[in-house]
């Protein structure tokens, strides 16, 4: 049960969110899934896509039926975090920020320059300059009209965090959240998932026939995927080499959607 | 030596489909010595056709070490790319709160150009500190808009917390609940408000397609019609697709054919009597037949103006072919509070459960679509113009939301003519046939959108548009995105008509 791949079910669709699970599905069970998410650092294109990978219903059902995976009712697996859980998460974010800063300082600035920039004297000077500028701006404003809003000088602790440049990380998979509880919402059989109301494939005779064909071809060792771009139900390719990365890319690139 | 081969290069070669002759097809190894396999008898030759060079060829031994090495490298490159974390600069990130009860994300801090075209403002009642309910307008995002922004790393989304108030003492400018991962956003937001996975996937596809095909910033605007039903009264009529009233009380094709048959049966006897009195049987037969044919032909109406026969007693299930997204081209001057009529409307359907659109369903989409003006002939270096769109047809009507009634074809056509005359006259045929000075003069007139001069009108009359282009474009268009487990195909259906056109 423990080493089964968690397939997250949301709105009756099956997704794989963890890249390690994706590696296992692809290399051990020769199923591909289809990447449907956006790559974080390449968000303005749709040639290369990222997690999640969406499994076609046949793939998801096959994995669960072969006892290789479990379904997880994902929308219900997010209880509200307690205050302590949130604080721990917050602490992690602050640690992450500090790590960034140390890396940035050690990497980007040459040591002498960094020292000068961070020396006590320089900081004092910079603060004074900032204060002067603010006073000047205030005087100017007073000359023109009545002051509406007097900016208060921020406390130095706070401003050092908010004024500097740093990055915020938004995690794609939820497995890093301490309050995420997938285990209490998992279903290890299709029947249980159907009774739980999160899964409805196969819903009729036609679906069962599709699944039968899919399973048979999978047992023969074929790689398969959705074949709508070829006017078919599934595409399948023989596996003699151990992966379809290259073949798959070529096939899909030749069949762009009609515009 | 094999550096080029070893580099994981997922970008396919462009010339794959090109014709390659026999010599180029054989791999480099075979070129070194005489290739004895070419002398094999035909029956023994492998039957799988081979085109172009293959980096990997299936072999029973399972591929060479080099092949395996390259495959592993390319696979690891893929997984490494997938493992990359989503990091956002604190200066560029927007903050929002997901309200599961409202199915909306309210934006507290909005940054970036994406926010110019995404979201809408909605009045919400807020409990103030002194216990008074106040109505405030807030920028809100639809679920698919929120997912799109979270995925591309523009939005930090919190889930509204019911009981706990979380402290804001960390690195965030705004904390309004528990933090959401992308996975949580997918799981919780999809399924709300008719939003299915298919539609979510379609959303960024539209943006990226337009992004690719138009200008350098991402500025395609996509809006769901349904939202504006609730927002402004003027827009309520804008996108309503009501099929039944159009067909319920109008003559059907079927009845007309029946009537034509009855007419034929009645006239046949009279005709024969008349012909016998003349005494020329052969001639009379011909005349009778001709008359018979003409009567029949003339009597049956045809074309798209004739409504489709709908049995009045049947109740049809609700059609999945309803427009879900409005699409705007990037140069559209766009106001969030009063969106202009869209350039295109897109229907999104699930390939697994939805059959091909029936004639009736397609007709329903066409009825809502504007009539397209004939395509303009190609002009070298055309200025950037907005394409044929809903705007041009609905521009003359005072309320931009009225769906086009079926009976209004003639009026519509004239309005199309009116609005397109400056465009077609100046950029179109005259641009090709008239001399350069004339063209130079005509462009400013188009830019200032004044009426074209008489010369350009004359030149318009001289030349008809290319019939093939007209046929290909059709009079009306329906765009359908078909999604099968993540794979999206977009199809364009066009309604063409032979009854009118440049060939007459």
TrEMBL record, chain A:
It holds the Pfam family TSEN34_N. Residues 5-74 form the TSEN34 N-terminal domain. Its EC number is 4.6.1.16. The keyword Lyase applies. One of its GO terms (molecular function) is tRNA-intron lyase activity. Keywords: Lyase, tRNA processing. Coiled coil: none annotated. One of its GO terms (biological process) is tRNA-type intron splice site recognition and cleavage. Signal peptide: none annotated. It is an enzyme of class 4 (lyase). The keyword NAD does not apply. Belongs to the tRNA-intron endonuclease family. Constitutes one of the two catalytic subunit of the tRNA-splicing endonuclease complex, a complex responsible for identification and cleavage of the splice sites in pre-tRNA. It cleaves pre-tRNA at the 5'- and 3'-splice sites to release the intron. The products are an intron and two tRNA half-molecules bearing 2',3'-cyclic phosphate and 5'-OH termini. There are no conserved sequences at the splice sites, but the intron is invariably located at the same site in the gene, placing the splice sites an invariant distance from the constant structural features of the tRNA body. PANTHER family: TRNA-SPLICING ENDONUCLEASE SUBUNIT SEN34 (PTHR13070:SF0), TRNA-SPLICING ENDONUCLEASE SUBUNIT SEN34-RELATED (PTHR13070). This is tRNA-splicing endonuclease subunit Sen34. It comes from Collybiopsis confluens.
UniProtKB/TrEMBL annotation, chain B:
One of its GO terms (cellular component) is tRNA-intron endonuclease complex. Residues 1-68, 368-466 are annotated as: Disordered. GO terms for biological process: tRNA-type intron splice site recognition and cleavage. Residues 448-459 have a biased composition (Low complexity). Belongs to the SEN54 family. Residues 18-34 have a biased composition (Acidic residues). The chain crosses the membrane at residues 221-241, 274-294. Residues 384-396, 404-422 have a biased composition (Polar residues). This is tRNA-splicing endonuclease subunit Sen54 N-terminal domain-containing protein. Keywords: Membrane, Transmembrane, Transmembrane helix, tRNA processing. Residues 79-158 form the tRNA-splicing endonuclease subunit Sen54 N-terminal domain. PANTHER family: TRNA-SPLICING ENDONUCLEASE SUBUNIT SEN54. Pfam families: tRNA_int_end_N2. The keyword Ribonucleoprotein does not apply. It comes from Collybiopsis confluens.
């Amino acid at each position: 049960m423990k080493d089964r791949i968690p397939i997250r079910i949301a709105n009756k669709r099956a997704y794989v969110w963890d890249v390690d699970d994706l590696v296992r599905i692809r290399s051990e069970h020769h199923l591909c899934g289809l990447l449907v998410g956006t790559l974080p650092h390449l968000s303005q294109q749709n040639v290369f896509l990222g997690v999640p990978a969406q499994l076609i219903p046949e793939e998801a059902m096959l994995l669960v039926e072969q006892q290789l995976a479990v379904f997880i009712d994902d929308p219900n697996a997010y209880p509200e975090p307690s205050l302590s859980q949130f604080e721990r998460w917050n602490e992690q974010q602050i640690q992450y920020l500090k790590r960034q800063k140390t890396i940035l300082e050690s990497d980007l600035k040459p040591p002498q320059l960094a020292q000068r920039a961070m020396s006590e004297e320089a900081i004092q000077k910079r603060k004074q300059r900032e204060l002067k500028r603010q006073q000047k701006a205030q005087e100017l404003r007073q000359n023109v009209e009545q002051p509406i809003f007097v900016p208060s000088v921020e406390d130095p602790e706070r401003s050092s965090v908010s004024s500097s440049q740093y990055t915020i990380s938004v995690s794609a998979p939820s497995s890093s959240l301490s309050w995420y509880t997938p285990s209490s919402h998992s279903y290890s059989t299709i029947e249980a998932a159907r009774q739980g109301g999160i899964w409805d494939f196969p819903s009729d005779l036609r679906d069962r026939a599709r699944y039968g064909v899919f399973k048979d071809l999978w047992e023969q060792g074929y790689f398969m995927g959705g074949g709508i771009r070829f006017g078919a139900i599934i595409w399948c390719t023989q596996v003699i080499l151990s992966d379809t990365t290259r073949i798959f890319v070529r096939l899909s690139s030749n069949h762009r959607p009609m515009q | 030596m094999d550096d080029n081969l070893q580099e994981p290069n997922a970008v396919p070669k462009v010339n794959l489909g090109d014709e390659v002759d026999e010599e180029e097809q054989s791999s480099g190894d075979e070129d070194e010595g005489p290739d004895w396999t070419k002398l094999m008898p035909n029956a023994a030759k492998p039957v799988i056709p081979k085109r172009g060079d293959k980096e990997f060829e299936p072999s029973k031994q399972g591929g060479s070490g080099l092949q395996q090495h390259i495959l592993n490298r390319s696979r690891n490159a893929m997984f490494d790319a997938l493992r990359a974390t989503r990091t956002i600069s604190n200066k560029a990130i927007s903050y929002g709160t997901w309200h599961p009860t409202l199915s909306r994300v309210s934006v507290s801090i909005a940054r970036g150009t994406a926010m110019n075209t995404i979201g809408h403002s909605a009045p919400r009642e807020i409990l103030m500190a002194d216990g008074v309910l106040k109505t405030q307008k807030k920028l809100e995002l639809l679920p698919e808009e929120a997912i799109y922004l979270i995925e591309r790393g523009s939005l930090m989304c919190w889930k509204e917390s019911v009981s706990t108030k979380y402290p804001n003492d960390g690195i965030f400018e705004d904390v309004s609940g528990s933090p959401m991962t992308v996975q949580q956003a997918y799981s919780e937001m999809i399924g709300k408000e008719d939003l299915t996975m298919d539609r979510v996937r379609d959303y960024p596809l539209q943006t990226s397609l337009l992004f690719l095909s138009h200008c350098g910033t991402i500025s395609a605007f996509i809006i769901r019609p349904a939202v504006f039903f609730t927002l402004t009264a003027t827009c309520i009529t804008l996108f309503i697709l009501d099929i039944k009233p159009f067909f319920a009380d109008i003559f059907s094709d079927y009845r007309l054919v029946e009537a034509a048959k009855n007419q034929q049966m009645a006239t046949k006897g009279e005709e024969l009597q008349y012909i016998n009195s003349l005494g020329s049987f052969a001639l009379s037969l011909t005349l009778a037949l001709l008359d018979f044919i003409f009567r029949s032909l003339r009597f049956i109406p045809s074309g798209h103006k004739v409504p489709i026969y709908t049995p009045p007693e049947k109740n049809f299930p609700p059609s999945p072919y309803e427009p879900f997204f409005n699409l705007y081209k990037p140069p559209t001057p766009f106001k969030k509070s009063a969106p202009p009529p869209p350039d295109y409307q897109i229907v999104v359907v699930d390939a697994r459960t939805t059959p091909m659109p029936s004639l009736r369903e397609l007709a329903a989409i066409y009825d809502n679509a504007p009539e397209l003006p004939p395509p303009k002939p190609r002009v070298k270096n055309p200025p950037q113009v907005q394409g044929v769109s809903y705007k041009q047809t609905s521009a003359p009507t005072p309320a931009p939301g009225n769906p086009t009634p079926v009976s209004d074809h003639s009026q519509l056509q004239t309005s199309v003519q009116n609005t397109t005359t400056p465009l077609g006259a100046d950029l179109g045929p005259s641009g090709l046939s008239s001399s350069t000075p004339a063209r130079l003069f005509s462009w400013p007139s188009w830019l200032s959108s004044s009426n074209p001069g008489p010369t350009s009108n004359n030149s318009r009359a001289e030349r008809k548009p290319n019939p093939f282009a007209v046929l290909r474009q059709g009079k009306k268009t329906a765009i359908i995105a078909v999604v099968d487990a993540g794979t999206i195909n977009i199809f364009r259906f066009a309604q063409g008509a032979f009854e009118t056109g440049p060939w007459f």
